[in-house]
Write a structure and sequence with these properties.
Shape: globular
Structural class: alpha/beta
Largest sheet: 7 strands, mixed
Strand order of the largest sheet: 2-3-6-7-8-9-10
Order of helices and strands: EEEEHEHEHHEHEHHEHEHHHH
Strand content: 5-15%
Number of strands: 10
């Protein structure tokens, strides 16, 4: 039972605005009392996509090809820049995004097919380029793990970004890829404040668990760093030095950051979230975002959308650089390599020449 004007326990947002491509809008029945409404449960939907590798031409990300086993994300991060993608599916960027999860059941088989094609030129594949591949349902479905099994078989390099400790479950596969300089993991640590994390990212791993994932992966020999993302001025920017120190203590090797992005309807959802959880800081936070976005809440231009612009953006960048240096973290992760890529024969075993060259 819930009221759209109030937070919903375990959810990032409480509204479900009509998608910008929809002509039909849902309006709440005024004759139905708030007490008679039931908060939405998570629903899994079958995604029948026939390809799994997506490409992009953005100079702001470290890869131009990625795989996303899920669309939508139960982590429920109020600020998630991927929320508008759900509108292309005829759904809302609000509650639909975190309660209606599309599952690519055939992702491992599709990935194998695409890697077997002579058209595939080995390159780094990003995992979680849009939504988190280690969201809660992955524990049961194991689709991401099965994709990693395929990548390990082919020795195709992979880069992962996640805010869930579940990534440590796959340390065995990532360690094997790391033997061939073909694995890289960023664990996203937005805050060390458990209360803020619970409000902002309600179904993601606790901050301590994310640091534990860093420790576990480093112990397994996997190159691992932290992504302080997003930095939200007036909310978590003051935590940058302590996050980086904690990450270094856990074994992180490198660190990166991005500034909050609020594309399309995410701006309205985030503004509502601020009003519900931090009404006293709302104007301050939004004002600082506008300071870094040319007076707007979002800037989509390459080169600016990830880092912002202006005096405040530079100050945050300088703070991050100094804190990273003090923590002993590298600016750039180690290079990954495609040199060991191989295609199995029909029986699923490596070729004779691959075995002889190992």
């Amino acid at each position: 039972m819930f009221d759209h004007s109030l937070p919903i326990h375990g959810r990032g947002v409480s509204d479900n605005p009509t998608g910008r491509f929809e002509r039909i809008a849902y309006e709440r029945d005024p004759d139905v009392s708030v007490e008679d409404e039931v908060a939405p449960a998570t629903v899994l939907l079958r995604d029948t996509s026939r390809t799994i590798i997506a490409t992009n031409d953005s100079p702001d990300v470290g890869f131009d090809a990625s795989i996303n086993p899920y669309r939508g994300c139960e982590h429920g991060c109020s600020y998630c820049y991927a929320r508008p993608y759900h509108e292309y599916l005829g759904m809302s960027a609000g509650l639909d995004f975190e309660t209606k999860i599309l599952v690519k059941e055939d992702a491992p088989e599709l990935l194998r097919k695409e890697l077997l094609s002579p058209k595939w030129q080995p390159k780094v594949l990003g995992i979680s380029g849009v939504t988190d591949a280690y969201q809660p349902i992955e524990r049961r479905l194991r689709i991401t793990r099965r994709c990693l099994e395929v990548l390990t078989e082919f020795r195709n390099p992979v880069g992962i970004v996640t805010k869930n400790h579940l990534v440590a479950r796959d340390a065995d596969l990532l360690t094997e890829l790391a033997r061939f300089d073909a694995a890289l993991v960023f664990v996203s640590v937005t805050t060390l404040d458990a209360n803020l994390s619970r409000r902002m990212e309600p179904r993601a791993s606790h901050p301590d668990a994310r640091l534990a994932a860093v420790k576990d992966l480093r112990a397994a020999g996997v190159p691992v760093g932290v992504m302080v993302a997003p930095i939200i001025p007036g909310l978590n920017d003051h935590e940058v030095p302590t996050i980086l120190q904690a990450a270094a203590a856990a074994g992180a090797m490198f660190a990166h950051y991005t500034i909050l992005r609020l594309p399309h309807g995410v701006a309205d959802l985030f503004e509502q979230w601020l009003a519900q959880h931090f009404p006293d800081r709302k104007d301050k936070v939004l004002g600082r975002i506008r300071d870094m976005r040319g007076g707007k809440l979002n800037e989509s231009d390459f080169g600016k959308r990830m880092r912002g612009d202006g005096i405040l953006a530079k100050a945050i960048g300088d703070l991050f650089a100094m804190a990273r240096q003090k923590a002993g973290l590298e600016r750039m992760p180690p290079k990954v390599s495609t040199a060991s890529f191989r295609r199995p024969i029909k029986g699923g075993l490596p070729t004779l020449f691959d075995d002889l060259l190992e």
